[in-house]
Amino acid sequence: MYNSPNIQSYTKGKSLTFIGQGIDKTYWGIGATVPDPSKFGTEYNGDYSFDGAKTVTFKDMTLQSKAKIDYLGFIRIDDTIVEDCKINGKTFYWGYKTATFKNTTFDDTDTDYAIWTYSSPIMTFDGCTFHGAGKYINVYTDYSTGKENRTVNINNCTFITQKHNKSALNINDSNMGNYKYYVNFTGHNVTEGIQPHTLTCSPLFGFSNNKNNSGRLVVKMDGVPIWQDAKMVSHSIDTANDKYTDGYKDDAFDYTYGEWVKQEDGSFKRHVKRVCQIKAAPVKPTKDSKSQETPASKTPTTVNTMSKVTPNKVNAVKATTNDVDTSVQTNIGLSILGVFAGIAGILGYRKKNK
């Protein structure tokens, strides 16, 4: 259809559905069969078959793009829906209003991204699987820079690689002006072979460098905010289907305990530092982002633990917890751990840190 003359006169303003006979039987080539080198770096090797169409749906087929050619895809369709399909190669252009992918596998991307969120203000992935060499979804646009908020929805998706490179979503919000990206993770999203990102302490999203994390991003997990204003809301968050971060999920913390100090009311107080053990590939520092050179996932949590201790009644212990490091929240279990460590110290025993 790409080479069909005046095909747009039949498809403009219409909604169309194409149903194949299966991903191993029906193949759809996206754009020019042989891309024109003189048009590299532009949209002109893309597929104009449905230029001006309202909604175009593809089901039960393989959509074939080119792995190393930029700016391929379907040009100027309002909404695209891809369901029960396989997409080979890298694509940029899908629905110019919305793009939805259901139960679709993204494959054969060699060393590049499977897809950019380039032309779609709202892009949704539902039950999709990504196989790649370490790159998956590039959350970025210069097509509509600073014109509108943009949303990416990830529900029950799987990202698989044999070689770590980028996070499942590699995000660049540096050119969004007064607008933001909104990323929503829902359900059970799984990664295999992807390391947690240094700043986010999660394999699900991250940045190529500190400049790309400019504060124009809000990330939610099951509706709960986990990242905004260029930093994590908390290092330890429970959601309906998951936990944020991976350090919290795996209980991968080192604890350091200060000395107990007696207070005026007879209670004792000490500092407990909690440091995430997770180490990921380092983020490249920028001259204007020196404060971010220390990974957020390694920021210690300092806890003031107040304990009432009497010589004859060791059981008369009351503890309160005050998290004085706003970058990381502390759970109740940590305060209990600090209390019992204090009791053990008073009794002449020392509790071994994990």
Task: Report what the structure shows.
- 6% of the residues lie in helices and 32% in strands.
- The protein is mainly beta.
- It starts with 7 loop residues before the first helix and ends in an 8-residue tail after the last helix.
- It has 2 domains: 8-249; 253-346, no CATH class.
- The chain is built from 3 helices and 28 strands.
- Strands 1-3-5-7-10-13-16-19-20-21 form a 10-stranded mixed beta sheet, with no helix packed on it.
- The radius of gyration is 25 Å and the shape is elongated.
- Strand 19 (217-221) and strand 20 form a beta hairpin.
- Mean pLDDT is 79; it is low at 280-354.
Keywords:
elongated, mainly beta, disordered C terminus, seven-stranded parallel β-sheet, 2 domains, 354 residues, ten-stranded mixed β-sheet, single chain
